[in-house]
Amino acid sequence: MAALALKLYSLLTWLAMAPLRARLRRRARSEPLYGERVGERFGHYDAPAPQPGAGPLVWLHAVSLGETRAAALLLRELRAQLPTMRLLLTHGTATGRAAGQALLQPGDAQVWLPWDTRGATRRFVQHFRPDIGVLMETEIWPSLIAACRAQGIPVVLANARLNEKSHAGARRLAWLARPAYAALRAVWAQTQQDAQRLADLGAPVAGVLGNLKFDVVPDAAQQAQGRAWRHQAGRPVVLLASTREGEEALWLASLKQKMLSVGVDKAHAAIQNIAKNEVQWLLVPRHPQRFDEVAQLIRDAGLSVSRRSQWQGGPEAADVWLGDSLGEMALYGSMAHAALLGGSFAPLGGQNLIEIAACGCPVIMGPHTFNFTEAARLALAAGAAQRVPDMPAGVQAARELVADTGRQARQAERCLEFAAAHRGAAHATAQAIAQLLHAPR
């Protein structure tokens, strides 16, 4: 039954290859990296595989930017415990691949993860022949796991999470999901709830090791620069961190909300007055392809914008500072007195709040944090975050928090304590991977 299900799935993914090529071409118009090395998506590689060496070839898959940042924390510990290892790093998105380039050392390789057809995954495995595969967080691909199993390559799921919605979906597709989860060698879950859901699908849960993202250590230089620029602002700075599509419009609407009873011209003047006099707004969109779109949205609302990419000696005077850069959340978190958490004000599950809290920046979350349920719960319990029902309530909560300097300072201290209290997952996960590599097959 499992073999038949896999064949049916492989046929469906094979039929999707033509639409996938078309989608990549469309994405490449705004993000050129999607148009590079497209053959790798289908298991064809120009570059040779890393040469055999004294140490193991560890394949690490981090689909996008968030997973790549978590993978960087794990990789640091893996290199300490396996100093002769070579890395094969794979991704699915352009932001992930761009960030992953900084993790490479001589002898490593970086490629796109192949599309999950039987042929592409078999070519990938036979070309690289890794000693172990480490999938980050949620990336379960049935054909890929089956191809590894056929070649005797152990595959593990690290920093594993599975929310209730995804669990329900996997149960509906149990004929496909259960064999894939069961074929993993080990799974290390973020929380006990994740472990229970994964075990329900047949995954070999080997432990609950916590969330790798707690091991983040904010870049000291970015923090110092951020604090200096915050001081120069001359007023409280409120960060909208990793906003997703639609949330910027919700924020702008919330600024106008109190003026709905007056005319359009007066409301337009009011939004400018609110933006200029109360706080310095710092807006950081989650996806780089939206930077220009968000900048125009802000201008259309009658507000001036100063973009990070154009700063010379520091932020320029403007109604809104726009963080249009990657890999600088430590800078932005250190500039801010409070942060509204992107992805949580639209039903998108929320973005990672841990890195912001680790900068000592109190977090205000919307109602949607199902992607980080446990981290959100822990932050609330620690007093490092608060939850609000919608964007207008979030904007109001941010105003009140930054106006009360004593309360803001206490919450900032709780953020640092919260971040420090849950570290250690990276070391424990790397140790478990090293032990599995050294165990007899």
Account of the protein in words:
The chain has 441 residues and is α/β, with parallel strands linked by helices. It folds into two domains: 182 residues, 3-Deoxy-D-manno-octulosonic-acid transferase, N-terminal domain (Rossmann fold, 3-Layer(aba) Sandwich); 202 residues, Rossmann fold. It is built from 19 helices and 14 strands. Strands 3-2-1-4-5-6-7 form a seven-stranded parallel beta sheet, with helices on both faces. A seven-stranded parallel beta sheet has the order 10-11-9-8-12-13-14, sandwiched between helices. The chain is globular, with a radius of gyration of 23 Å. It is an enzyme of class 2 (transferase). Belongs to the glycosyltransferase group 1 family. One of its GO terms (biological process) is lipid A biosynthetic process. Involved in lipopolysaccharide (LPS) biosynthesis. Catalyzes the transfer of 3-deoxy-D-manno-octulosonate (Kdo) residue(s) from CMP-Kdo to lipid IV(A), the tetraacyldisaccharide-1,4'-bisphosphate precursor of lipid A. GO terms for molecular function: Kdo transferase activity.
SSE arrangement:
Blueprint: H1 2-15, H2 17-30, E1 57-61, H3 65-81, E2 86-91, H4 94-100, E3 109-112, H5 118-128, E4 132-136, H6 142-150, E5 155-160, H7 164-172, H8 174-182, E6 186-189, H9 192-200, E7 205-208, H10 220-233, E8 237-243, H11 247-256, H12 264-277, E9 280-285, H13 291-300, E10 305-307, E11 320-322, H14 329-335, E12 338-341, H15 354-357, E13 363-365, H16 373-382, E14 385-387, H17 391-403, H18 405-421, H19 425-438
Parallel strand pairs: 1-2, 1-4, 2-3, 4-5, 5-6, 6-7, 8-9, 8-12, 9-11, 10-11, 12-13, 13-14
